[in-house]
Specification:
The protein is an alpha/beta fold and 459 residues long. The chain contains 20 helices and seven strands. The strands form two sheets. The protein has a five-stranded mixed β-sheet with strand order 4-3-5-7-6, with helices on both faces. Strands 1-2 form a two-stranded antiparallel ribbon. Helix 1 (2-25) runs parallel beside helix 7 (110-122) and helix 7 runs antiparallel to helix 17 (310-322). The longest helix has 27 residues, at 191-217. It is globular and about 75 Å long.
Amino acid sequence: MKIKIFNLSAVAAILLFVCSSLRHSLFQSGAFDLGIYDQVVYLMSQGKPPISSTLGFHHMGNHAAWAVYPLALLYKIYPSAYWLLGVQAVSLALGAIPTYYLGKQAGLKENQAVTMSAVYLLYPLIFNANLFEFHPEVMAIPVFLGVVLAARLNKIFWFCAGTIFILGCKAVLSLTVAAMGLWLLICEKRRLCGVFALIAGCAWFLIATQVIIPNFSNGEAAAVERYSYLGDSVLDIIANLFLKPGLILGKIFSLKTLEYLALVIAPVIWGLRPKYLAPLISVVPTLVINILSEKTTQRDLIHQYSLPIVPFLILAVISSLAANKSWLRNPRSIFIWALVGFLALGKYGFFWSRYLRSIDTWQATRQAIAKIETKEAVLTTHSIAPHLSHRSNIKFVDDLSDAVPDLNQFKYILLNVRHPDGTRNPEFAANLVNQLQNKQLFKLVQERDEVYLFVKKTD
């Protein structure tokens, strides 16, 4: 049966990778965030400073995600964004394995433990987040499950090593680690593991947000602007959570929050019982961060923001199922519920709706990309950027507002006027094409299906 779990995880990894790769090949990924990580990992592999030309600062100033550095070894074999998509797919699929062992450790029957692995894999956010670009926190998801298993088996070294790795995946995960430590300490009575996680999480949060990120980005931690009504800095926001509770109560007690929580628990609500919800102490920071954010994408099952919740939801369900207190107990019924949840909330339908919207320019875009033969600077659109990010300077026009960039810095300008995929300034690409055609600085080398490739003239 153990072989069956590994096979299940392997099949899931392949399916997830095929889906994300297909999305990328259809030019539906973007500079945010696949292009950003593809560029910095490529630069790491070349021994160059990993400075994102999209963000304008060093990789460590983004999320202090040092766990990304080892991925550069893969790029030394062959530089490709598909490595990142592969790592993401494997990471998410791997969560099925510790889920199985946690189920067995909790006393589940063999078929119940296998079913819980399927429940994890069918949780809609696993599939949806896999499609949405690349984010380093995906590497932490199976490790969260792994460190809990290590703590329960008194494998202190592996718990500490896994916890340190989680901290390196994204600075904000330090809050989840600290909350996990509190749960392990108080509810699981795992003193060493609980104290280590609590101290390590709090310490890394302060180091990352107050030292590393400001020094490498010359600014506050990422996404602080989403909480501007609470303050202008991480510490101000934290202070105002306690000093000005009136600012947050309206967001917490709202229909939008209720809708968000309903989405999160619906796929596993059959296994959530009040007496066995202690693991969810670990997800309080993630829930608070997402609920209070002014960015609505943090409260859906499409983007990656709710991923740290999934391992602990699974743990809560395993606890109630092991105690024979869950609403559903038969593996077949549990699997059907999970499958229905996936069919209802999984975004597989994007493949025949959103992802085919630019298929009419697919061939022309690939042809233009093939004509960009050097690693010199490129100006392009958001969805083309991750296909040309193996260079020190690449920018996309959709994020440049009304300002015309200094075109002298670019060797190539590749624009898809029919599908500029810009929401902030959708007419920018067309206007820029008109400007380029009236200037002598660049030469038009391809015009097909409203895809234009300009190359800077040599003296």
